Amino acid sequence: MNLSHFFAVAAVSCSLIGTAGFAADEPAGFTETPIVAPTPVTAAEIAGWVRDLESDKFPTRRTAMRMLLKAGSQAVAPVAAAAESDELELVARCIDILRTLSRSENAAAKSIAEEALKRLSKSERASVAQRATDAVKKPVQAVPNFRGIRVQIQLKVAPGGGIQILQGAGVKGRNIKIRQTNNNGNRVTDVDIDGKKIHITDSRGKNIVVKVAEKVGGKTKTSEYKAKDLAELKKKHSEAAKLYEQFAPSRNFVGGGLF
User: Fold this and answer.
1) pTM of the full predicted structure?
2) Buried (b) or exposed (e) across 172-205, using 16+ Cβ within 10 A?
3) Where in the sequence of the chain do the CATH 1.25.10.10 domains occur?
4) CATH class label, 43-136
5) pLDDT tens series, the chain, 259 aa
């Protein structure tokens, strides 16, 4: 595709977005918040839901996670015990449940879940310890998905022939700026959200690095997350993976399909 054709296609994309807006992919992960008043259940019911976490049917697993969340503090011990497993998918689901409970409005469940995660962070199983450790850390704050908003876009030819995409958007009064360069598959994505800076680099989806810099107590704190690919990033740093999925892939940008 020659450059003039590229800009023609991009201009059409921009005009469509200017009137209709666009939506970024939903972040991956289970984020449902448990109800404040847990539903009394029996030990047998909880044991059954814990077993269902390993089901090969998604609806069954989804229902089990919801019911365990609703059970609140009653579910913490059985779920924590199930997390001590070599089955990585089961571990991930159990940690997700405990993390959600640890951030819920249910004070009893919150306290018990936090303690369970701290114990699991010292597990002899490295994968369990890593996930639990990530779960007790302060989460990397995601930003709202872009839905039905106006976006101003510029396209420029970057040095070396890469394409720059510059975006500025307002979401409920927040000032969000996004800039991405793509030079032969080597992407650099910079996001500024009310002064909080997110810097993402990758090479065709490999060798991912996510850096988050924000003010904490008047000082700038920078956290860095690395992974060989998105799958590993999800396993090691799920919150950073959400930021990568939301901002880095070209499909989240107007004209992204042209790359």
Assistant:
1) 0.45
2) eeeebebebbbeeeebbbbbbbeeeebbbbbeee
3) 43-136
4) mainly alpha
5) 444 444 444 443 443 333 333 333 333 344 444 444 456 789 999 999 999 999 989 999 999 999 999 898 899 999 999 999 988 889 999 999 999 999 888 888 899 999 999 999 999 999 899 999 988 876 555 555 544 444 444 555 555 445 545 444 444 445 678 888 888 878 899 888 777 899 999 988 899 999 998 877 778 888 899 999 988 998 888 888 888 888 877 544 433 333 2
- The sheet with strand 174-183 has its strands ordered as 152-157, 163-171, 174-183, 186-193, 196-203, 206-216, 219-229
> String of b and e for 219-241 (b: at least 16 CB within 10 Å)?
eeeeeebebeebeebbbbbbbbb
